[in-house]
Write a structure and sequence with these properties.
Layout (H helix, E strand, L loop, with lengths): L1 H17 L22 H6 L2 E5 L6 H8 L6 H7 L13 E5 L5 E3 L2 E7 L2 E4 L6 E3 L5 E2 L4 E4 L3 E5 L5 E4 L3 E11 L5 E15 L9 E5 L4 E4 L3 E7 L2 E8 L1 E5 L5 E4 L2 E6 L7 E4 L12 E2 L5 E3 L7 E8 L5 E7 L3 E3 L6 E10 L9 E7 L7 E4 L4 E3 L6 E4 L5 E8 L7 E4 L7 E2 L8 E11 L3 E4 L3 E5 L2 E2 L4 E7 L2 E6 L7 E7 L7 E7 L3 E5 L5 E9 L5 E2 L5 E4 L2
Parallel strand pairs: 12-13, 21-27, 29-36, 37-44
Antiparallel strand pairs: 1-2, 3-11, 4-7, 4-9, 5-6, 5-8, 8-11, 9-10, 10-12, 11-12, 12-15, 13-14, 14-17, 15-16, 16-19, 17-18, 19-20, 22-25, 23-24, 23-26, 26-27, 28-30, 30-33, 31-32, 31-34, 34-35, 34-36, 38-39, 39-42, 40-41, 40-43, 43-45
InterPro entries: FecR, FN3_sf, Ig-like_fold, LysM, LysM_dom_sf
Protein name: FecR domain-containing protein
Organism: Marinobacter alkaliphilus
Amino acid sequence: MLDRKRQSVTGLLLLIVTSLLPGVAAAEISVARGSSSAAPAQQSESAPEWVYTLRSGETLSDIGQSLLMDRVTIGQVLQYNNLPGNARLSAGEQIRIPLAWLKRQPEPARVSSASGNVMHVSGTTGQKTPLTENSVIRVGDEVISSAGTATIVLADGSELRMAPNSRLIFNRLTQYGKAGMADTRVRLQRGEVHTRVKPVLEDGARFEIETPSAVAAVRGTVFSMQTSASGSSVQVTEGVVDFGQPGQVRRIPAGYGASASTASAIPMNIRRLPPAPVLNPITPVLTQLPAELSWQQDGANRYRVDIFEEDGGTWLQSREMPGHRFDISQLDNGRYELHLAALDRQGITGMPAITSIEVDLQARTPDLISPEPGESVNDDMPEFQWRLNGTNEVARVEIAEDEEFRRLITSSEWAPDNRALPSRPLSPGQYYWRVVSEAGGNSVAASQPRALVVNGTLPPVRIISINYLDNQVRVFWEKVDTAKDYRLQLAEEPGFNNIIKEANVADTTAALRLIPGRRYFVRVKALSDGPLASRWGPGRELYLD
């Protein structure tokens, strides 16, 4: 009896709504929007409920243990459904359960990628923090993108890709008892999202996106949704979306779009989307650039290209343009998903043509031109020249104290040039230089190092402190970047005419053992591998009582 009533109500509703839109199926939305409920309207309005379909081999006792809160009995559920306490239900039959009676297991969402300026607003504290990869999104949280994008993965694997200048509020992230019975409701306050919803169990889950002017309820589909002060719109790529203003929801199938205006007297405009453009063949793996995406002319005046990273789902670019070509030469190494769609006269995005490409650029070792190996220069800002051997490469010159480049002195900026100056003047001394090239953002190659001598005089070395301990004196002096070693002299008079000790020291400190009661004088100068003159620093007096 209950099944016959349910079938008649459902059939009547479908007949009425279908007649409003020839060729497009209508939506059947209960208070628990997205679940198909056959409950009387007055009961649904007073108590939002879940309609559950029994599976093969499943008993009411199983349902009570897996779905119901501890304080709720299966007897209460039977009474709610106007069924006797000894009722026996079989597979395929349905029961209604108030949402308040179900086990609630909060399931946070996680950020799989974030780029640019995107903020995370806590729903409990109101604190704003930058959104980063692996950030956790909980019920009540907000994500606000300004000049950035974010990809958010829900507990069931569904994916939300936020465009720049968007605001998304997570009103509900709940799993009821069993895996697959997820209840997700988010509010798109402004902006745009690309949504890929995992197929959900019939009568067992729901997914809604609400805007200030409309709501979209789905059961497993791919669609885009936009909202602004003038209204909301949706474009369905796969599956169906139940979309519209409250009380005026229509079912929008794949290949169609709909818009609900806040100003127009017409509650909803439904139209077929422009077909997907026909892409010209493109090499799936690009080992050199430039390259372009092109497509056949189909009568459209403008197109939109969206580029996503395949791995993390990052929304990298969204461009609108005339013509039939798009330059993709600025992509770094990686795998990408490209979506191309025509725009209709209202600027609505059509069905996308989707292709995947991989960029795999390899940097090649540059050839050094000048200075020549071991060359001496008089300029403290010498020009370095080289030749790049790859495509779409940038390079920089690196200058170090050692041949292994463990002690880097300075470098130039990354640029696609073949010559550069150091970023700061070089003190006199011997250096090593090389050129490092980069392609695709992660492939690098370095030339062999070359020796270089900057002519001049090494600066005098100043002693900075002297420590006394028993009969020992420790002397500390300044470091000279290009010095290989230091020479220390000890004398008994300030003119250093009678040297009593002289030694080469690799460090910037030395310990001396002196005779108490006598005066000494010490000085230091820097030494280099190159033919550089050096000067003694000022002498310091030493005395032990």
